[in-house]
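worker-03 picked up job from queue 'complexes'. Input manifest follows; two sequence lines, order preserved.
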Amino acid sequence: MNWSVLAPLIVYLGVMALIGAWAYRKRRNVAAGEKTAEYYLGGRSLGWVVLVFTLLASAASAGTFIGGPGLGYSGGYGWILVSMFQVPTAFVVFGLLGKKFAILSRKLKIITVTGFLRHRYEHPAVSVIASVGIVGFLLAYMVAQFVGGARVLEAITGVPYSVLIVVFAAVVTLYTAFGGFLADAISDTVQGVIMLLGGVVLWAAVLSVTGGLQDVGTTLQQDHPQLLLLPGADGFTAQMIASYSAQLGLLFCAVPHLTVRAMSYRDSKAMHTAMAVGPLLMFVITIGFLTMGPVARLFFPDLAVGDLAVPQMIVDLLPGPVAGTLLAAPLAAIMSTVDSMILIVSSSIVRDLYIEYVRPQTRDETASRAGSYVSLVLGVIVLLLSLDPPAYLEYLIIFAIGGLEAVFFVPLVLGLYWRRGNTLGAILAMVGGMVWYVVATQWVPAMAFGVFPIIPSSVLAVLLYVAGAYVGPPPSRDVLVKFWGTQAEIERLSSPGVGVR
Amino acid sequence: MSTGSMGTRERRRLPDDFEEDPRYRVSVKEAWIVLAYWLVFTVVVTGVAWVLGGNRSADEITFVLGFPAWFFWSGIVASLALSVVPIFLVRSFFTDVDLAEDPCPATHDRGGAES
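worker-03 finished. Artifact:
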């Protein structure tokens, strides 16, 4: 075991635990009635720094730090190009859902994506499809993140896989379960800064060792020419490249652990600044790590597993403690994604299923405490699944993200801006989008028409949504007032009880 | 289905007998700006990459600073240029609004809505 590499990682995990403890103390002092919103949304108090880093850190998963560079190593520059489409994430997520989403969530006291859909479409089928989609797809995604990260760290540090998984899961679960959204957001900020600096430091180190990248080009042209080509071995045709932009850019705003962040900011200034600087920060993070994939060919011409390229390079090029600090970046990416997902799944179970259908009169304080316990149990489930991971893990990730986008994007965005959107349309779009996506991904590739399956399934979802809107009954006056009217009009609907439906 | 007939349209008119929250109009305008930006980002980055690098053979590839030229101009230069654009978009077209349930009219800056 390499202790000089491990020491910074251990310090880093300790800091995460401290942040959790701090947020837990803060949460206990919150006024009654606001506790659940505090646990799941940090009391809608985020300023721009925490806001932008929590979004970027939640969006940039193991894919940016391990999987992406690995694909760049084995498949070439096409993979880096399509990863650049995550650069506008902050601008798209906050801007497309926009201030309307933030205002509505305050007016109707919505704290989950499913909650939004429940108010908008007023039908249990919509809530249940949404909750099941969240629980199923996100659990798969979390397991994939943990397993990918632990395998790489095992290879690099020599610490046994099972020990790593248990330690990861314990730290993430504890600070998320007890600290809630605030611990999640603050630790994301620390993690985001590590990722940002990591990208810059890694480049500086590589440049100082190689004295410039001219060699990379000539070496690749001689030994691995296929890495330089479009479409190249992995088939990046123009339409394929553009369809990655839909999946990683536009539709990303419908992935629930990112969507809720559009409810969490304090004011429109925080939102504006996060939107303005977000793309630039994401550019540095993405380019910094992903371009290292092909560069690693200079040092290790023939690794069997591309995923190990960048971590191996970090350990070989840099002195132990610096390497350890940089390795914290992929670890941070994984933890910051998983922590936000645990919260989403937890809120989905507590808020959208338990309180809604089992025990509506649950007190706020009880709900907030139940949130902690459910998060704890989820951490244990993810841990158990990760100890004996299912096969075909990488597919699970793409599958999970695409599946979430197929289910949520259309009912969420069209429901937000198009009055005529109704329950029938929402149900058709969610079911149709998901079924088409699953079938095209798993069994009938022809249904993808040469692009990502998410594209045809989203188009289908839009068509079904519009068709449903004209065939089925229009939304009730109550829904229209709640989603388009002023607060005074909403209060006029029925004196008590708005937002408690 | 004759969605265009007057009768259908008449029957399906949505109720509008309530006061609308004026802040949502701001939001709709901004959402269109975001959509347009995303479209430009996609088209420019994909277009530059494909025009410079699509269907070339390996010995036709030229390099800039060690990167294939097509990637340098699309993935790095175009992406970087476009990731600065939101700073100007936000400054020029985005309006500060009070996000509270019921904004106090005195503090709510309506004058800037069309600037």
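worker-03 released lock.
Chain B is about 55% helix and 5% strand.
The two ends of chain B are 43 Å apart (CA to CA).
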